[in-house]
Amino acid sequence: MGNAILLLWAGLFWLLHVVKTSLFFHRTLKLTEYAFLQDFTLLPKSKQLFDLSILQLNLNAPFIAYSCFMVAVAIKEGAFLGIICVAMANLLLLVLPITLKYYRLHHFSFDFKIDALASSKSIFPNWSFLYFLRHLFQKQPILFFSTKLYGLFFIIGGSQLYFTDEYDERLLFICCLFTVAGQFPIGKEFGLFSANYMPFERNMPFKISNLFTQRIWTAISLIIIDSLFLGYYWYDKIDPIHLISSIIFIWSSMLFWLTYNYAPRAFEDAHLKRIYFGAIVIFLLIMFKVPVLSFGIVISVLSWWILKRNYFTFEFTTIDTK
User: Fold this and answer.
1) What does the pLDDT look like over 109-135, one tens digit per residue?
2) Which of 112, 145, 171 corresponds to the end of one domain?
C-alpha cells in the first residue's frame, strides 16, 4: 500500500511538471520574438515529430531517470503491476505533450483563457500591493493556479512522508526549496506586468523604502495559500520555529522574484545560471542542517539591494522580458 501511494504521488508530480512545461511552451510562442517558430511547420512531418520527441524527452529526463530506478526496484521485488503502471505513465506523459505541442505549432495564434476570471471586476480590494494579484486572477489564472498547485504538491507530499527515521526537518526545507523554484514564472510575469501596466511608477517621487514595503506586502499576498497549507499539514509534525522559518524563506524568495526583474539583463543565461548554482548551494547547505531562516534573511537583504541599486535606472528590454 505504501508503494502504491508513493507511485501515485510520483505520478502526480510528473503530471504537474508536464503541465508547467507545456504552459511555458504555450506562453513562449505568444511572444513576438518567437514568431519565427511558425516556420517549424514547413519541415517534413517526420522531422517535426522527431524534434518534438527529443525536446519532450529532455524535459521529462529527471523523472524518466527516477522511473528507471523505480523499475529496477520493482523487478527485484517482483512487482510487475507497478512496472506496467510506471511504463504506461511515462508513455502517456511523453505522447500527450508531444501531440499538444504539435497542435500548438500548427495553430500559432491559438490562445485560451478562463472567462469566469477574466472580467473587469475583482474580488480583491483596490489596494496598490494587490494590483499584481488582481492581474494574475484576471489575465493569467492558469499560470497562478498551476504554480500554486505545483508548490502545494511538495508541501502536502512532504508531510505524508514525515516523520520516519530517515527524515528530519530537512525534508520540510527541501520541499520549501522546490516550492520556491516553482515561483520563478510568477516573478517573470511580474516583470512584464511592471513594464506594461506600471511604468508610470518610475516618474513618481517614491521613496525606495516605500516601494520595498509595497513589494513586501505583494509577496505576502502571493504566498498566503502556501502558508495556510504549510501550517495545516505541518503544524503537528515539526517544531514551530522550523515552520515559521520555512514560511519566511518562501516569502523572502517571492520577494526576490519580485525585485529580480530590476537587475540589468535579469533573464540572460548568465544570470539564470547563477541562480541555478545558488539553488544547488542552498540545497547542499540544507543537507548540512543550515537553518533556512538564515537564507531568508540573506535573500531579503539581496532583494533590497537589487531594488535600491537598480530601480531608478533600469529599463526593460526585449531580452529582459522574454
Assistant:
1) 776 655 544 455 566 777 888 889 998
2) 112
